[in-house]
């Protein structure tokens, strides 16, 4: 299967406006001039490949990977799993998925995070994996805590996990966040509110998935991810002419 070729242009209608005064730092981070659209070139249509030799056996287990299996992290044990697809609904196999998150108390292992919640000596907060041939991935982790952040007085981030997905080219790279079904802080979050379409917000909220939960062990949440696709003619989900 070819995974090279021109990329489908982004639909700016469904992306949040980079400038949103409710999210204070977006004011200085957002561009001052209108964006220009350009045709993609090989520098966007290609990207790095990651071999299975890169990934260690505990890399997708955040409960154990910080202590190399010695001692589990504190928190509610969860499985996060899903598929990485492109805009043509084709699986994106063998692509690097990385996550990072706060611990169960809402604190990151980062020198600039000085929130009151303590660090967990058994939790690092980072993981990575490769999708399989069907584009599926999974992580075992703990549910991250909500945390306050300096924005407008008393703003809190909902429970969330940060995701980075490489795709097969730099133009497919996606960095986003996953939220948890039922969290009342989602609707109050100034960062979430930069997305004006509720349907698009829903796509960032992972539903509880009891079919993948393990009794007496962990709950599960399902999070499917769609990357940019290629401008190729599809016929019954196969490239035409192949
Ligand atoms: Fe965060």
Description:
The protein has three helices and 13 strands, in the order ααββββββββαβββββ. By secondary structure, it is mainly β. The protein has a single domain, classed as Aromatic compound dioxygenase (Protocatechuate 3,4-Dioxygenase, subunit A, Sandwich), CATH 2.60.130. The strands form four sheets. The chain has a five-stranded mixed sheet, with no helix packed on it. The radius of gyration is 19 Å and the shape is globular. It binds fe (ii) ion.
The overall pLDDT, averaged over residues, is 93
Q: Which superfamily, in CATH terms, is the homologous superfamily?
A: Aromatic compound dioxygenase
Distance between the termini: 8 Å
Shape estimate? globular
Specify Rg, calculated over alpha carbons: 19 Å
- Strand portion: 15-25%
When the domains are counted, the total is 1
- Based on DSSP secondary structure assignment, what is the total number of beta strands? 13
Helix percent reads under 10%
Number of helices: 3
Uncertain runs with pLDDT below 50, 5 residues or more?
Answer: none
List SSEs in N-to-C order.
HHEEEEEEEEHEEEEE
Major β-sheet strand ordering: 3-2-7-8-9
The hetero compounds bound to this protein are: fe (ii) ion
Enzyme class: oxidoreductase
Protein name: Protocatechuate 3,4-dioxygenase subunit beta
Organism: Litorisediminicola beolgyonensis
Keywords: Dioxygenase, Oxidoreductase
């Amino acid at each position: 299967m070819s995974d090279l070729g021109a990329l489908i242009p982004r639909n700016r209608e469904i992306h949040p406006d980079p400038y949103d005064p409710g999210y204070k730092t977006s004011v200085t981070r957002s561009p001052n001039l209108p964006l220009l659209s350009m045709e993609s070139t090989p520098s966007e249509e290609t990207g790095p490949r990651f071999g299975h030799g890169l990934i260690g056996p505990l890399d997708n287990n955040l409960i154990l990977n910080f202590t190399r299996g010695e001692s589990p992290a504190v928190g509610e044990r969860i499985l996060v799993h899903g598929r990485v697809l492109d805009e043509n609904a084709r699986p994106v196999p063998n692509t690097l998925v990385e996550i990072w998150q706060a611990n169960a108390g809402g604190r990151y292992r980062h020198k600039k995070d000085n929130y009151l919640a303590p660090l967990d000596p058994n939790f690092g907060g980072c993981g990575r994996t490769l999708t399989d041939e069907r584009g599926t991935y999974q992580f075992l982790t703990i549910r991250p805590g909500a945390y306050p952040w300096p924005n407008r007085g008393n703003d809190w981030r909902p429970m969330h996990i940060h995701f980075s997905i490489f795709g097969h080219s730099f133009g497919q790279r996606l960095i986003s966040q996953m939220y948890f079904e039922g969290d009342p802080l989602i609707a109050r979050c100034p960062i979430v509110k930069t997305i004006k379409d509720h349907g698009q917000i829903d796509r960032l909220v992972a539903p509880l998935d009891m079919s993948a939960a393990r009794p007496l062990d962990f709950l599960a949440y399902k999070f499917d991810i769609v990357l940019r696709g290629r401008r190729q003619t599809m016929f019954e989900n196969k490239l035409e002419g192949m």
